Amino acid sequence: MVREEVGEIGRDDMLIDGVETEQKPNNEVPDGFNVNYLKIYYGKFFPYADMHKWMSYGNDGKHPGCDQSYFGRREFSFTLDNDIYLRFQSFNNVPELENAIKEKCPFKIDIGPVYSVDPAKRHAYAQSGDNVFTPVERELIFDIDISDYDDVRFCCSGADVCPECWPLMTVTIKVIDTALRDDFGFNHILWVYSGRRGVHCWVCDGKARRMTNEQRAAITEYLHVHKGNENSLKKVTLVGQSLHPFLGRSYTEVLKDFFEEKFISSQNLFSDEERYEKILEMIPDESITSELRGKWQDNKRVRDDINVVRWSHVKHLLQSSKHKGQGIRKCVEEIVFTFTYPRLDLEVSKHMNHLLKAPFCIHPKTGRVCVPIDPKHCEEFDPSGVPTLSKLLEELNMGALGTGGEDELDNTSLGESIRYFRTSFLQPLLKSCKEEIESSYTAKIQQSKNSLNW
User: Fold this and answer.
1) Is 280 in contact with 169 (CB distance < 8 Å)?
2) Is 221 a catalytic residue?
3) Please, are residues 373 and 39 in contact by the beta-carbon 8 Å criterion?
4) Residue 361 and residue 41: Cα distance in Å, rounded?
């Protein structure tokens, strides 16, 4: 459960692209990622004060109800050059956080839970014999990686991503965000681009942060439907007479249209025999699959998109009145869910002690900043348009930074992401946190008065 403070992590995750250091003309900076670039980024661009405000959840104020030790009990971990991994870093304030990051220049910053005691002093408590070092708060987090869709996307594989398969991440954001807000009543949700091939979700409401591992597991299981046979393409088996309201809403409002109007054509699911055979394998009635094969092996040219035409054949046969079986009728939905429904890394969400990469880090493979994504406009998000380290340094060379203060990044390509983080996520979150702190403090004072009166 707990790694060593300093150690090696998998080389595969941290290969650093080689870059030429020779300065190009016209303020251009060579693409890539290196320690010198990163030092400048941490010196000029990283939003330390905003990160501190977020991680303090209102406890950095003067109100008597504030817990002044709160931020100092948060675990940060740094991955340094040469894959050196430092866990259980903790900081009492913004200057400490800023100085440590500038001094150590981590290639990656991960954020862990808030512990019962300062993580840096955990050994002192361990020697006392009491098991007091334990996580007490943690955002509910989700980690979705596009490489988990490799069995259903044919344009890319592994870490590669393109405009044809990235919309799978858009679908994930729409489905999960709606469920978290509508079904569980969460309001303060931050979606972040991982910098390369996926998205991260931070649910920051007080009731989410204080959930037990069992409660986290229950929410994760609610959102998880990929429970089919690992050896077959069909990863989803839908049970019952009708879809659960959450799944039904996801299907009608997001998945169905995306699959039919975009995905089957962008991935050419039915124009290639090997691909459509995978879909036919998911249909448990041989008479239907034989009929479809016969139809499709007649190579008459069709004027419309062959993918759309063949999908309509599948739907017609599976939903026609002569096939009464519930399993056959649900097959259409199961195919759509198998290809498009979010694929979550369950363990990351179920346990409080998991670490997740901090927003506004730089991904060492792509040089891209891990920027927030607005779920209301997630279909407009383009990973290839995200600010990169070299682009930010070019802007710095051209004098895009202001003279200081909170708005100094406004004229850079990172400005929009910082503004969104502050106004749409941080401000409403902190307002809610301060109200919660005041209300809790007032209740405590009242309780104290009542006990004295008694």
Assistant:
1) no
2) no
3) no
4) 10
Concerning whether 145 is annotated as a catalytic residue, the answer is yes
Catalytic residue among 145, 177, 334, 394: 145
**CB count in 10 Å sphere of residue 174:** 20
**Top mean-pLDDT range of 19-33, 222-236, 350-364, 402-416:** 350-364
Return the SS3 of 140: strand
pLDDT surpasses 60 at 49: yes
CA nearest 369: which of 170, 192, 168? 192
Exposure of 12 in the CB half-sphere (CA atoms within 13 A): 2
Q: Which residues contact 208 (CB under 8 A, 6 or more apart)?
A: 139, 140, 186
Q: What are phi and psi of 111, to 5 degrees?
A: -115, 130
Alpha-carbon span 375 to 139, nearest angstrom? 18
Judge whether 75 counts as a catalytic residue. Answer: yes
pTM, whole model, 2 decimals? 0.89
Query: From the candidates 143, 205, 333, 395, which is the catalytic residue?
Result: 143
Mean pLDDT of the 380-409 span: 85
Q: How high does pLDDT run on average in the chain? A: 87
Q: What is the DSSP string of 145-209?
A: EGGGGTTT-SS--TT---TTTTHHHHHHHHHHHHIIIIIT----EEEEE-SSSEEEEEE--HHHH
Reading the block at residue 182, the tokens are 């509508």
User: What's the token pair of residue 41?
Assistant: 């980024």
pLDDT tens-digit readout, 70-92: 999 999 999 998 889 999 999 99
The residue type found at 301 is: R
- Contacts of 273 by beta carbon, 8 Å cutoff, 6+ apart: none
**What average pLDDT does this structure show over 159-165?**
93
**pLDDT confidence of residue 406:** 64
